[in-house]
């Protein structure tokens, strides 16, 4: 019986070893594929960027003290002047505190003046006069603080502009520093466009950005407008992974409101930007990811395949324009993409250019 068990064990090990050798042979066997070598980049002098009008110098404003809102004097869309009262808190208690502090200050002032006369007549000491002086100074400081608290119950516009949003209503409680409304400067138009990292890298930092003004068109308006560079972000947006650039111009006669769609037309040469649009590759070299808009290519290096994510600018009958992820002279797999794995050995049957 022991000999039978031993024979069965040997037979099992033999079968497993044979399977492992077969799998190892299968894994080490190269996959025959066709390849594509990335050519020189596609260039384009004129480019259009989609953008949107955003509020210029948008500023949230809030009360400096906590209280119940007595009145909101403006609504979204209203034009305001600098210093204009836009909201106020219920202030009966604060006014009473101001009146009390004023009375105390008035009393302390009279006592100090009376004390000066008495000191001149040597009827009170210098120390007693100093105490009266200190009482007057303290009462004056309390009175000033009370008046400031009363002023803080009034909310005024910080500049000439327009109300964008109003967050609070009458009788609601507002905490100190809690935004009550947003205002922006409606005499300016700001347009925000999103730029990929490769486009931003083309911008020459030594270029005078004030020397070139791209033209911009807006939905609903037939005219085009010249805009100037304002600023751009140094960190990509967390959601879109793109950088934001802002352009500005004075508000035209026909007011352009925030949220209006815009198209910014740029002459890349005049702007001093290298006009690389991307690299053209066949659609058959692209592998779709699990998420919408996500694509990969397989780059062949030293006879092995490596999966790399890419950004697609556009797809046409001539192929796809890849704006990031590959470079000139990269060799891409152009067949059997679904059989590839990272590190898989491959052999090129043909290589297109």
TrEMBL record:
Which Gene Ontology terms cover its molecular function?
efflux transmembrane transporter activity
Q: What InterPro entries does UniProt report for this protein, alphabetically?
A: RND_pump_MFP
> Which is one Gene Ontology cellular component term of this protein?
efflux pump complex
Family indicated by similarity? Belongs to the membrane fusion protein (MFP) (TC 8.A.1) family.
PANTHER family membership: EFFLUX RND TRANSPORTER PERIPLASMIC ADAPTOR SUBUNIT (PTHR30469:SF20), MULTIDRUG RESISTANCE PROTEIN MDTA (PTHR30469)
NCBIfam families membership: RND_mfp
Protein name per its UniProtKB record: Uncharacterized protein
Natural source organism? Aliivibrio fischeri (strain ATCC 700601 / ES114)
